[in-house]
Design the sequence.
């Protein structure tokens, strides 16, 4: 994949996905780390910068994006992926109860529903 987008939230699953994708990102032309949050704070910004620093240690140059949204985070992420012409999405796969996923949905479920997306998801 030439253009890879990392969907970032500071969780164990997302950290694992980034580590799993390092070999692919090392071959990419463009890597973008994006965090979507209703109220991004310094913690969010620092966390995204930390991922970029980790990747830089592996010789991978990545740009960062923080997107503030009042809308559904999942929809905003999918729109961002499309606008970037991303060829691969790297994301943690978060496990929730079936009831919670059914009632509230979730980013993981939304990404899996987008059949046009190539995904590397780690749990």
Sequence:
């Amino acid at each position: 994949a030439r253009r890879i987008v990392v969907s970032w939230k500071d969780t164990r699953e997302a950290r694992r996905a980034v580590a799993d994708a390092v070999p692919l990102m090392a071959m990419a032309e463009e890597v973008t780390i994006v965090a979507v949050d209703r109220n991004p704070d310094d913690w969010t910004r620092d966390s995204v910068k930390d991922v970029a620093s980790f990747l830089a240690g592996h010789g991978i140059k990545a740009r960062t994006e923080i997107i503030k949204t009042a809308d559904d985070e999942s929809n905003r992420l999918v729109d961002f992926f499309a606008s970037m012409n991303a060829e691969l999405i790297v994301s943690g796969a978060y496990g929730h109860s079936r009831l919670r996923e059914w009632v509230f949905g979730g980013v993981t479920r939304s990404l899996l529903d987008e059949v046009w997306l190539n995904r590397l998801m780690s749990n």
